[in-house]
Every structure is written in structure tokens, then in C-alpha cells.
Amino acid sequence: MSEQGSSQGNQYPPDPELSKTANARPEMKEQGLEEFWDEQAKQRIDWFEPYETVLDWQLPYAKWFVGGKLNACYNCVDRHVEGGKGDKVALHVVPDDGSDSADAHDITYAQLQRQVVKFANGLKKLGVGKGDAVGIYMQMIPDAVVAMLACARIGAPHTVVFGGFSGKAVDERCTDFGAKVLITQDEALRGGKAGAQKKNADDGLSADTTIEKIVVVKRTGGDVPMTDGRDVYYDDLVADLDDDPSSCPCEPMDAEDLLFLLYTSGSTGKPKGVVHTTGGYLTGVTTTTNLVFDVKDDSVYWCAADIGWITGHSYITYGPLANGLTSVLYEGVPGYPDKDVWWKIIEKYGVTILYTSPTAIRSHMKWGEQYAQSRDLSSIKILGSVGEPINPEAWEWYRKYVGGGSAPIMDTWWQTETGHILITPLPGITTLKPGMAQQPFPGVKPEIRDDEGNALGLNQPGNLVLTQPWPGMMRGLYKDDERYRDTYWSKYSDAYFAGDGAKYDDDGDIMLMGRIDDVTNVSGHRISTFEVESALVEHELVAEAAVAARRDPDTGQAIVAFVSLVGENQGDDELKQTLREHVATQIGKLARPAELIFAHDLPKTRSGKIMRRLLKNIAEGEELGDTTTLVDPSVVEVMQKQVNPT
Ligand code: PRX
């Protein structure tokens, strides 16, 4: 993003009424690290056995709430039922065809408990027990949340693979984790169309897969291939199983037991298995949900993310349910069946908190405010944004047309690795500046440093680091200590290196400035240029490939791939299409390059190094500067002729 918020732009002080009632208190920022989190963990989490030590910090590994025993599912479900909130709606389920759909329905906490128990008994029947990895490859249907909670209930760590990823991506991740059971659904339903899901999973299974059983939840009832002895429909699996909570008690887990792995893109190599454990993660997501979104007993909360990403884990499943909230769970996509479907949902359920991405906001903005204006959105109290920097225009639009001109927007910065929100304004406390995440959450200590490790002052762009641990921080990369240390703890020996550029404005508020590594951010989805390059060179006609990102007014960034072909092949539009689809089947549709450019070679220096800076300039349609060090400067001219920057 080029233009972002600054202290020169608009500022919005907190509403004094909100300041009086807000859950977050200014004094929290004055508390000591351990004091703050100790208080939160005791107040918000039910422990089967109390912890002895709040924090054991042996850089770069933290242990939180050491010795404590708890269960995430118990905290998200059972305790609410036991506490008399069984009839409260946990999920307003909104199917693909919107809130008017005949299939729209509510699930109370008591019903959720029974569904989770039944699912957990089904997993047990398949032999899954404490410590056994389970893969989940599903769309935004309630069964996906139920499956996650069922795993947590029996102490089986899950790895959710985004439903839009390819089967190959599913197999790679599940096999890396050693998952024997994969839970999926027959078909995906998005934008009114049924698409493959179970079949994708089948197609991706490799010869050395660890997956032995596939549980198939029926969504469309479509005809999908089933392999005898390996695949089972969920309904058949659980037909005669109990759903009484006493039939499957919540397994007491150590605070540091694995809750899940979530694979994410790094700048090189295979996706990284980010490790999250139980006690610290749950405390972190429960506390941040409560304070950042100022949730109350009667809040109606909607996080319009996908459970396949960390936002879905932390702010659709664990955070809101641990707070006993009523949430909307939405299967669909913005704009279907109508462009006002989101606003209808808010109107129908009286949504008070909406948490979404800048990309989604920009889509709505493009369609026009008339859709939002045609609905009653007066229930909205708090808005959230996540995944990428939000440009001030989108921020202002969001506040004006969705937030009734007054709802505060929480621009939340965090990562798969951080587990929960770390930099964000707080309702009733922070004077908001459009386009900036602004302030560290209590207990979080950011710094902005130059490459030599010097702490930078106001208006000096540098690298964002965190100098203190937080409860939801990853506990490493799965079976890869070296990569964990290299990626996050080697640039600076004493601080977590986030991979984001940032600077302080005139007032010391933090402005995020995008990734500084080869990780692109398309519509808030992290994709490494390396992964796309690897997928391209796997195609038999591709000799070499290099990928750059250019700015995109809708998706934040867009992927541009530069490809040289084997032999004399010049390439044509048909081959471009073939290669784009090839990337989609290898990784997933979200990684499909927006543009593909052919040339007889890539721009290389005499030592054979690809000049990536040039690729970025070409992709952006910018001046190239000095190209004299190139072996063959004609390459860039050929490329430039093909680019259509937006
Ligand atoms: O570059 C930052 C960007 O998203 C990256 C993390 O991506 P992921 O692990 O997929 O998690 C996304 C959801 C938390 C970060 O390194 N990012 C996330 N939130 C923001 C952001 N950039 C600017 N402002 C944000 N609010």
C-alpha cells in the first residue's frame, strides 16, 4: 500500500460513553507482563488444575501457565452449558445462499455440546486418541467448527487446511504432521455452485501419505467417490454413537500440550508447521477477543474469515466460543446471492461486531454504498480489520457506511505465528487514525529496528520486532528447531523478527508497511513467491520462473509470474491459461498468478543472479533504472511490453 494513515490525516477520539463501559482499561498497559496475563488467565479460563508458574521464558521458547491443566473444548462449550447458558445461541448458521435461506439455523451451546460429543465419539471409534494428529479440510460449515472442538475435546491436535487449497497441499501438510484421519466434506458450496472437495482430497493423496481414513461430512449430498475400507460418511460413522456429554469427558491437557498446527508460507522451502499449544493460546485469544472487540453478554459477533486461516482459528472458533458469544457462521462469499447479502445478515441478526479484511471492504466499496445504505446496520458497535494494511479510503468508507459514521475500527496486526492480536487500537481508549494498527496490546513490547539492530525513532521505517513473549506465541515450527531459530530469532538475537516493515508516526503510533520478505499478501492470504515459482517449474514446458507482487487496488497485492519456456517455445495465451491453472491445482486458486509474462530468459546479472528488484519494477510498470549489469537487457523490454499494471 502506498498511502497509509498518518498523524496528518483524520483522527477520531474515543466516544466518552464507550470509555466508561469498555472492557479494556487504560491501567492494563501499566501492569507487568506476568501480572497482566496471570489476571486474565485466572479470570477468563477454567483450569482443571491450577498452573504453578505464569511464564518460563528461555529465549526463543516460551512456556506459559506451566503445570496448569485445562481443555479448550471445555472452555468453549461445556462450561457455558454447565453455567446455565445452554439455551444461548452459539452459532447463527448462514448458508451459502444467505440469511433468507431455508437452511439458515441456530445452534445453541447445549446443541453444540451434543454435536461435539458425537463427533468426538466418532473420532474415538476410528482409534483417534490423545496426541493423535487429525487433518481437517472443509468449508465454512458448522461441522468444521464441531470437528475442531471434537479434536480438542479428546486431546487430538488438528491441522486445518484451507478448503480452497489443492488436495496436494492437504496431503503434504497432513503427512508432515502424521495425520491418519482426514475430515472433509462431499462438496463445497460457494456462490451457488457445488465444487469438488472430497475428490480434491483423493486426487492429492501421495504414495507415502499417512492418511488411512477419510471421514466425509455431507454438505450437498452430491455423488462423490468413496473407497471401501478407507472412506466413511460421517452420518454412518456416528449413527449409533452417544451424544451425552458423560460419554466423552473433556481430556485434561497440559497447558503446553499441542492444540493445533497451522501451516503457513515462509519465504523459502515448504510451508511451515506453526505450533500452538493449549493454555497460553486459549488465554491469549479469549482475552484479546474480549478486550479488542469489547464483547458483552448480548453481543452478536461476526468474523467473516475462514477457519482455514489463523483468523478463523482464533476469532471464529476459540476466542468467541470461549467468551460464550453468539456468532454468525457464514458459509458464503461476498456478493452472492446479492450484493447486499452481508448487510442483510447484519440486519437480520443484529450483528454488533464485524471483523473482516480490507479486501472484503474494498469489494463492497467498489459495488457502492447503496447496498449498505439499504439495510439497517444501526446494531453495529465495533468494527475490525485484519490481514493486510487497510488504506485510509477503505477505513473511512467502512466507518461511514458500515459503522454509521461512529463505530470505532480496530485495525488488528498479528500473524499465524503470534496466535492472537498484538498491535491494535482499543475501544474507548485509543484515538483512531485511519490505516494504522497504532498501539501494542497490554504486555506487548514492539520495537522498530534498522538492519544493524538499532532501535529507530519517529518516522524512520525499519523492521518490526517484539522484545517480550506473549501467551499465544508459537512454540516453534513442527520438528524444525533450526528453521524456527533462523527465521524468527537470528536477525536479532534478543527479539522476535516479524518479517514486517513498520514505522512510528509523529505521535509514536505504529504504522505497518507490508512484508519485507518474499511473502506476498493477496487478499490477506499469505503466499510465498517461492511456492508459486516451485509450482511453475514443475510444469514440463517451464524452464525457469520468478514471481513478484504488484500493488492491486482490490486485492492489496497481485501475483505476477515471469516465465521462460523450454526450447524455442514462445508461449501464447493458451499456455498462460494452462500455467495459471497448473498453479491453481498445485497450490490452490488463491495462488493463481494474476498475470503471466513470457520471455526467452529471466533478467540475470553476469553472475547468474535473477534481479528481483527489476521484476518488481516491471510488474508495477515503474521506471527500471540501471539495467547495464544484465547479461541480456532485451529480456526486460520483452517483459515490459506484456505488462498491464492496474
Ligand atoms: O504482513 C502482515 C499482514 O499479514 C501477515 C500475517 O499473515 P498471516 O499469518 O496469514 O495472518 C493473517 C491474519 C492475522 C503479517 O505479517 N497483516 C496482518 N494484519 C495486518 C497486516 N498488515 C498490516 N496491518 C494489519 N492489521
TrEMBL record:
Residues 1-30 are annotated as: Disordered. This is Acetate--CoA ligase. The keyword Nucleotide-binding applies. Residues 85-478 form the AMP-dependent synthetase/ligase domain. Residues 33-76 form the Acetyl-coenzyme A synthetase N-terminal domain. Gene3D superfamilies: 3.30.300.30, N-terminal domain of ligase-like. Keywords: Acetylation, ATP-binding, Ligase, Nucleotide-binding. PROSITE patterns: AMP_BINDING (PS00455). Residues 531-609 form the AMP-binding enzyme C-terminal domain. It is an enzyme of class 6 (ligase). Residues 1-11 have a biased composition (Polar residues). Belongs to the ATP-dependent AMP-binding enzyme family. GO terms for molecular function: acetate-CoA ligase activity.
